[in-house]
Design brief:
This protein is mainly α. The protein has three helices and two strands. Strand 1 (about 5) and strand 2 form a beta hairpin. It is globular, with a radius of gyration of 12 Å.
Length: about 80
Protein backbone atom coordinates (compact mmCIF):
# COMPACT_ATOMS: atom_id res chain seq x y z
CA UNK A 1 0.00 0.00 0.00
CA UNK A 2 1.27 3.47 -0.85
CA UNK A 3 2.10 5.84 1.97
CA UNK A 4 1.95 9.62 2.10
CA UNK A 5 3.55 12.00 4.59
CA UNK A 6 1.54 14.13 6.99
CA UNK A 7 1.88 17.72 5.73
CA UNK A 8 2.51 18.97 9.27
CA UNK A 9 4.99 16.48 10.76
CA UNK A 10 6.04 14.24 7.85
CA UNK A 11 4.98 10.93 9.43
CA UNK A 12 4.31 8.42 6.65
CA UNK A 13 0.61 7.47 6.62
CA UNK A 14 -1.22 4.68 4.76
CA UNK A 15 -3.06 6.08 1.73
CA UNK A 16 -6.50 5.31 3.17
CA UNK A 17 -5.66 7.25 6.34
CA UNK A 18 -4.31 10.28 4.49
CA UNK A 19 -7.27 10.57 2.14
CA UNK A 20 -8.82 13.98 2.90
CA UNK A 21 -12.25 12.39 3.09
CA UNK A 22 -11.13 9.95 5.79
CA UNK A 23 -10.74 12.59 8.53
CA UNK A 24 -8.12 10.34 10.09
CA UNK A 25 -5.89 11.74 12.82
CA UNK A 26 -2.10 11.73 12.57
CA UNK A 27 -0.86 9.81 15.63
CA UNK A 28 2.27 11.95 15.73
CA UNK A 29 1.10 15.58 15.57
CA UNK A 30 -2.69 15.23 15.88
CA UNK A 31 -3.54 16.78 12.51
CA UNK A 32 -6.98 15.78 11.24
CA UNK A 33 -6.64 14.97 7.55
CA UNK A 34 -9.15 16.80 5.38
CA UNK A 35 -9.79 19.42 8.06
CA UNK A 36 -6.52 20.86 9.36
CA UNK A 37 -4.19 20.15 6.45
CA UNK A 38 -5.63 21.83 3.38
CA UNK A 39 -4.47 25.42 3.98
CA UNK A 40 -0.77 26.22 3.51
CA UNK A 41 -0.63 28.90 6.20
CA UNK A 42 -2.48 26.72 8.73
CA UNK A 43 -0.20 23.74 8.00
CA UNK A 44 2.91 25.89 8.59
CA UNK A 45 1.42 27.33 11.79
CA UNK A 46 0.54 23.85 13.08
CA UNK A 47 4.06 22.60 12.30
CA UNK A 48 5.60 25.53 14.17
CA UNK A 49 3.30 24.91 17.17
CA UNK A 50 4.04 21.17 17.15
CA UNK A 51 7.81 21.73 17.00
CA UNK A 52 7.80 24.48 19.64
CA UNK A 53 5.89 22.18 22.00
CA UNK A 54 8.72 19.67 21.75
CA UNK A 55 7.34 17.57 18.85
CA UNK A 56 5.25 15.57 21.31
CA UNK A 57 3.27 12.62 20.01
CA UNK A 58 -0.51 12.98 19.96
CA UNK A 59 -0.91 9.22 20.50
CA UNK A 60 1.86 8.46 22.96
CA UNK A 61 1.31 4.69 22.61
CA UNK A 62 2.29 4.92 18.89
CA UNK A 63 5.52 6.81 19.59
CA UNK A 64 8.73 4.89 18.73
CA UNK A 65 10.84 3.77 21.67
CA UNK A 66 13.58 6.12 20.53
CA UNK A 67 12.39 9.60 19.59
CA UNK A 68 15.15 12.18 19.31
CA UNK A 69 15.75 15.37 17.36
CA UNK A 70 17.41 13.24 14.68
CA UNK A 71 14.19 11.27 14.16
CA UNK A 72 12.18 14.51 14.03
CA UNK A 73 14.57 15.98 11.44
CA UNK A 74 14.43 12.82 9.31
CA UNK A 75 10.63 12.71 9.50
CA UNK A 76 10.31 16.38 8.50
CA UNK A 77 12.26 15.60 5.30
CA UNK A 78 9.21 13.61 4.13
CA UNK A 79 7.08 16.76 3.82
CA UNK A 80 6.68 17.87 0.19
CA UNK A 81 8.49 21.13 -0.55
CA UNK A 82 5.28 22.97 -1.43
CA UNK A 83 4.07 22.56 2.19
CA UNK A 84 6.99 24.49 3.66
CA UNK A 85 7.05 28.29 4.15
Amino acid sequence: MAEFPCRVCGLEQPADMWNPKSYGICPCCGTEFGLNDDDHQLVCYQRMAWLSSGAKWFKEERKPDVWTLNEVADQLKNIPEEWWW
